[in-house]
Each structure stands twice: as structure tokens, then as C-alpha cells.
Amino acid sequence: MTDIDVLKQSKTIGIIGLGDMGLLYARRFTQAGWNVVGCDREEIFESNLIKYSNENFKLLLNGHHVSRISDYIIYSVEAANIDKIVKLYGASTKLGAIVGGQTSCKDPEIKAFEKYLPNDVEIISLHSLHGPKVDTTGQPLVIINHRGSENSLKFIKNLVSCLNSKLVELTADEHDKITADTQAVTHAAFLSMGVAWSKAKTYPWDTGKWIGGIENAKINISLRIYSNKWHVYAGLAITNPAAHKQVMQYAQSVTDLFTLMIENKQDELKERIYKAKNFVFGHLNEETNLLLDDSILQQYSLSKQPPGKVNPNSHLSLLAIVDSWYQLSIVPYDHMICSTPLFRIFLGVTEYLFCSPGLLDKAINDAINATEFRMDDLEFTIAARGWSDVISFGDFKLYQLEFERTQEFFSPMLNEANALAIGFNVETLSYKNLKLNVWDLGGQTSIRPYWRCYYANTAAVIFVVDSTDKERIDTASKELHLMLSEEELSDSALLVFANKQDQAGALSAAEVSKALNLVELKDRSWSIVASSAIKGEGLTEGLDWLIDVIKDEQL
Fold first, then answer.
1. For 314-330, what is each residue's pLDDT tens digit?
2. Any idea which positions bind GTP (predicted)?
3. pTM, two decimal places
């Protein structure tokens, strides 16, 4: 019997709060063979008995019952409620138990544990840096050993191993600082955009003003945020001291830059912006491949109008992001350990504006000399200051009101914007004693621009082609060669599955190889295999070749 089997037989996992993330943990732990008990609000206990009657975890009346019998207790509650809930149930903690939390901000969580838990209780907290609908495999999972032994830490790592997440050990302060650095300012910017558009009663995709690559990304990211629940962002902004400071600075940067604009102080504006650029992006050179380019961004237009002449635009929201980072001495590239694909898109948009030839100078010139967006910049400045006021008040109800009011205005487009998060899955496979982390990237047109967010440290690319779709084989060829031209994939092996060989009229593997121009790949290990995913034919042959290539390159 292994160590983890012994733990599964002897330990009980308790979860206080069966919201989206608490329920995810309860299900995954029970599926892995752990004994799990949980509770939610006591007043909905009877209805939850019916709701969770088919679940394998045991539902208890309240946190007192959970705390009395659990060896590891996870408070999976909103950051705004952590203090009062730990105060309510902390005294019932089982002797010798370990306690942790799953809130997005660790400062109030740790303070509540230190204040209300007995001194002999160990504290080891968690934070899965993704939403409840995302596959946990390969996603960052922060472990904070605030007050725990090495044996207890080993127990927690054994527990969460079933999630197949990427473990990152941080202190509570490091966690809050890094999550703030990678999220606070950018959230403030795109939340403010939404408020500004809603106050002006403008759907940006319906007018001719917001046309062009940067505009497409700004609209999509803003709507992507408003497609989530308000508390996802409120907890970080209001309870995280580092985030609080950054949101305040963002509002100040917006105000300062807008003031320079309306005072026609172009030289002063340019000097300030270039100082920020050199600080944040100074390590990049002309050979650096930017995360995004205009041809990619253009594919994300929600506008039904064809692309035309790009209107003059100061891009005040993006200028202020970089100015804020400079004022706060934050280099976002230094804090990627807790980043998400969405943050890398945030960073890519600002990087594109600041590092693409001529774009930054044009934005500065437009800020002074063009007035087409002056009223929009005013609305945005007011919105940014308004968000900073909401956060400075520390009022969750006020935050919820402002967020949901804007969310309602944009509701017609939220489903389409949500497509940004669809099409990416990751699994860990074990094949012939080799462990493979496999990203499954959707092939839809709207998904392809985000492939490059996953290129780093890629050992091999598996490219699956529909051999029956002769009309789109040329498109597949172009996308394949465009992808392989990326520097990060220069050393990656290529395995092509000519799929659907079981169907009549399918191109043969040789015909697919010719259509894809695979013979042009001179400096890369590649192979093409005829396959049928439905029948399982060709898959083993392809993976055998791939494993041999990867092992040879590791020698």
C-alpha cells in the first residue's frame, strides 16, 4: 500500500462552502478516492440534500460538523466573507487538523486564521488560478505553507495531486503581490472601458469608430470580463492591499495623461510615456516576436462592418496601463508565474501598441491633435476614477451594483465574447514511461490567434487534418506553416494525423502530405500517419514515432 493510499484511508477532507470552486474540489477529491465531507449555508441544507443526493461526498449541516471531523479543512468562500465564517466555525476545528482557504486574496484569509483558529492548528492554504469550468490539468495551483510541518505539506500535495495542476509554492504576501501585478491594473482598465461605453450608451461594435486590431482586442477583453461573475474581480480589487494601491494609481495615471492631452502638452506627454515604455519594454529588441499583430487582432472584430481606415485614437486606457506599471515599478514579465492566458493577451495588446513601429507615436500625436475620441476619453477618465472610488470605499455591494449594471447593458454580446475562453483543454498523458502534458487547441478561426500563447517549451506539435475536407486543405497548409515559422517552435517535432481514413473519399496520407507541402520541412523531424480517431487506427503508430523522437532529443 502506497503512502497516498494510507492517507486516503485515514484522512477526511472537509470543505466549507460548496460554491463553484468548493464543489469542483469536492468532486475531484472524491473521484480520486478521498473521504470528503462538505457544507454550504445552513438554511439551504434540506434542498442541498436533494441537490447533491447522487454525489459521493457527504453533506453535513454546517461548518461546525465539518470542522469537528476533518483532518484538512478548506474554507472555499468569498474573500469578503472569510473573516465572519472563520470566526463562526474556527473554534470547532479538530485537534491536530490542518486548515486552508481557497480565496483569491490571502491577506484577509491568513489574518482570519491567525485571529480565530487555535494556536496549534496548522495553516496551509491553496489557490487554483482558474475558474470552475476550466480543466485543472496544467493550471497553476498556489500552495501557501503559512504554518505547517513538512509532513503536513506532503499530505496536502498528495491530496491535490489528483488535480494534475502545476504547483507553485509562495508566501501569502508573494501570492497577493504577484496576482495584483498580473491582474489589478488590467482589470481596472477593461472594467472602466465597459462603464464608459455603457454611460455613453454606445455599443462599440455597432459604430465606425472602433475599427482595427487594437480596438477588436479591447472590446473583446472588456466583454470577456463582464461575462463573468462580479465577485471574481471584487475580491482581488477590494481585499488585496497591493491591488488596491494599483487601481488607485491607474485612475491617477488616466487623469494625469488626460490632463496633459487637454492642455496640449505633447512634449511632456511623450516624455512621460517613453519613460514608461523603456521601463516596461526596454528588455525587448527589434528581433523580438510580439505576442500579437494586427492580422491576428483583426480576426476578433465583433463589428459587422468591414475594416476601413483606422480612426485617430489616443488609446488612453492602454497608455495608462503602462504608465501605472512604471509609476509602481512593476515589470509584468517578471511576474508570469501566476499569469493566465487572458493576462498574456492583456500584455500582448499593450506590447503591440508600445512596440510596433510608429503606433505609439501616432497615439501620442492623436492624443493632442485629434478630437474624435476626446469625449470618449473624458467618459473613460470619469469611469476609471469612479471604479477607484468604489474600491476605495471597500463596498462589495456598490461594486456589484456597478458591475452588474454595466453587464446588463452588454448582455446581447456576452455569449459571443465568451468564445475567447472556449477551445483550450489540457491533459496529462502517460505513454511508454513518458509523461506528456498535452494542450488541445481548438482549430476554429476565432481560436487560432491564441495558439501562440502556448508555444513556449513545446517539444512537439500534433496536427490533425480532416482528410475528407478537400476544400480547406489549403487553409490547413497555410496555418500549419505559419505556426511552424514561430521561433518558439523551431525545435519542435511535427506529427500529422491524416484523420477520417475510415470515410469514403478521404485523401490518403501521401495526398495530405503533398497538399500540406511537408517536403518543405527540411530542418525538422516530422511524420504523417493515416488515422481514424473513431476506430483508433494509426494513433499508436503515430505516438510511438513521437515518443522515440522526443527521447532521442532528450539524450
1. 899 999 999 999 999 99
2. 443, 499-502
3. 0.66
Q: Of 360, 392, 416, at which residue does a domain stop?
A: 416
pLDDT digits (tens, 9 = 90+) for 199-256: 888 777 666 555 556 776 777 778 778 877 887 788 888 888 888 889 999 999 999 9
Name the domain boundary from 366, 382, 416.
Answer: 416
Q: Using an 8 Å Cβ cutoff, are 195 and 364 in contact? A: no
Q: What angle do CA 480, 484, 488 make, to 5 degrees?
A: 145
Residues 383 and 274 in one domain: yes
Look at residues 306, 318, 289 and name the one whose alpha carbon lies nearest to residue 214: 318
Question: Is the domain of 252 the same as that of 108?
Answer: no
The residue length of the chain stands at: 555
Amino acid making up residue 464: V
What's phi and psi for 113, nearest 5 deg? -65, -45
- What letters, b where the CB count within 10 A reaches 16 and e where it falls short, cover 532-551? beeeeebeeebbebbbebbe
Query: Three-class SS string for 383-419?
Result: HHHHHHHHHHHCCHHHHHHHHHHHHHHCHHHHHHHHH
Of the candidates 478, 481, 437, which has an alpha carbon nearest to the alpha carbon of residue 460?
437
What's the angle, vertex CA 229, arms to CA 225 and CA 230, rounded to 5? 85
Spatial distance between the Cα atoms of 352 and 463, rounded to a whole number of angstroms: 28
Output the CA angle 39-44-49, nearest 5 degrees: 65
Residue 129, classed as helix, strand or coil, is coil
The predicted model gives 398-422 an average pLDDT of 74
488-499 average pLDDT score: 90
Instruction: Give the three-state DSSP class for 252.
Output: helix
pLDDT for 379-402, tens place per residue?
999 999 999 999 988 889 999 999
Residues 183 and 65 placed together within one structural domain of the fold: no
pLDDT at 288 over 60: no
Q: For residue range 2-57, what is the model confidence (pLDDT) as tens digits?
A: 889 999 999 999 999 999 899 999 999 999 999 999 999 999 999 999 999 999 99
To which residue does cell 480532416 refer? 466
The tally of domains found in the chain comes to 3
CB 194 within 8 A of CB 226: yes
Cell digits for 139?
A: 493550471
Helices (H), 333-373: 341-355, 359-369
Least Cα distance to 450 among 483, 473, 476 occurs for 483
Please enumerate, by residue number, every residue annotated as part of a binding site for GTP: 443, 499-502
User: What is the DSSP annotation of 283-320?
Assistant: T--TTPPPS--HHHHGGG---SSPP-PPPP---HHHHH
Per the CB < 8 A criterion, the answer to whether 166 and 456 are in contact is no
444 is catalytic: yes
Q: Is 347 helix (H, G, I), strand (E, B) or coil?
A: helix
Least confident of 129-138, 149-158, 189-198: 129-138
Spot the catalytic one: 31, 305, 444, 503. 444
Its domain, for residue 106, covers 3-169
Q: Are residues 400 and 428 in the same domain?
A: no
